[in-house]
Design a protein that fits this description.
283 residues; Glutaredoxin; alpha/beta; globular; 5-stranded mixed β-sheet; 10% strand; 10 helices; 7 strands
Length: 283
């Protein structure tokens, strides 16, 4: 991209300062990885969680999810692109927009053809609602992203106790997290002792099918061997969440599960495209 290209803006959820080192919300991470994959110059605006509805509405965006009772679920990411005037408020839509608008930029095609068939356990317990991926472009990727979202979301109870809240809005953010999970307070979801160990084992087992996909091309570390795609970024977006919230020894265990495929994938994607670019802090 030309140095004269106006900077795009990525809206991400503020975490414990410096947010550039602790940010781990999965969907904004997917958007950041896609922007970096495409080498799109951009800045990051850190948004306090209680301010997300105001920010979305201020940019003319509706909520992209609904709670079970039909109320709006406002969340991030958002990307604004002054080069085209686009304002995009969903991680998958952001990747599709970048591919359509900048098809040859950066590392190339985000959506190369590949077999993304993914059989995963049905009826997984989800603490929060997921985005609707029906009717999206690149349908095989959209369906894959939906299944990966469900697989990891079913185990986010493991992340509750370690989320790096921004102290400036921690109390209100905890209330919002609890509301999203439909529990009276966030602490009731925290897992300890034997229940936590059982959850880790279930998580490991559930990831087995996805891990097998990473082994199909032994040249690795990506699903297509040496070639990365948006499917890899989706997985790493979720791995980043667990990187930022699990205990250190638990994260190290996860990286070694299933012959270490997730650890290698995370390291490769994070090294190539994970860096937070310029920052603009929003109070």
């Amino acid at each position: 991209m030309s140095s004269a290209t106006p900077l795009a803006t990525l809206y991400d959820i503020s975490t414990r300062p410096p947010a550039s080192k602790t940010c781990c919300s999965p969907n904004p991470t997917k958007a950041r990885l896609a922007l970096n994959f495409k080498d799109i110059p951009h800045v990051t605006r850190w948004v306090q969680m209680p301010d997300i509805p105001t920010v979305r509405r201020g940019l003319g965006l509706e909520a992209c999810r609904k709670f079970a009772d039909g109320t709006d679920f406002y969340t991030l990411p958002i990307v604004t692109d002054p080069s085209t005037g686009a304002v995009v408020g969903d991680s998958f839509d952001i990747a599709a927009y970048l591919q359509s608008t900048y098809p040859n930029a950066g590392a190339g095609d985000l959506f190369p053809e590949q077999d993304l068939s993914y059989e995963f356990p049905e009826n997984l317990p989800l603490l929060v609602p997921l985005s609707d991926h029906t009717g999206k472009p690149h349908p095989s990727y959209a369906l894959f992203a939906a299944k990966v979202d469900a697989t990891f979301t079913a185990h986010t109870q493991l992340t509750v106790g370690g989320f790096p809240f921004d102290p400036a809005s921690e109390a209100a953010s905890r209330v919002e997290f609890a509301r999203r999970a439909m529990v009276p307070q966030l602490e009731v979801l925290t897992l300890t002792g034997d229940s936590r160990e059982r959850a880790m084992k279930t998580f490991e087992d559930t990831l087995g099918v996805l891990a097998a996909m990473l082994k199909r091309d032994p040249s690795g570390p990506f699903l297509l061997g040496k070639r990365a795609s948006y499917a890899d970024l989706v997985i790493v977006g979720w791995l980043r969440m667990f990187w930022g919230t699990l205990r250190k020894e638990e994260w190290e265990r996860l990286c070694k599960w299933h012959d270490g495929g997730f650890g290698r994938l995370y390291e490769a994607v994070d090294e190539a495209w994970g860096a937070v670019r310029e920052e603009v802090v929003v109070v």
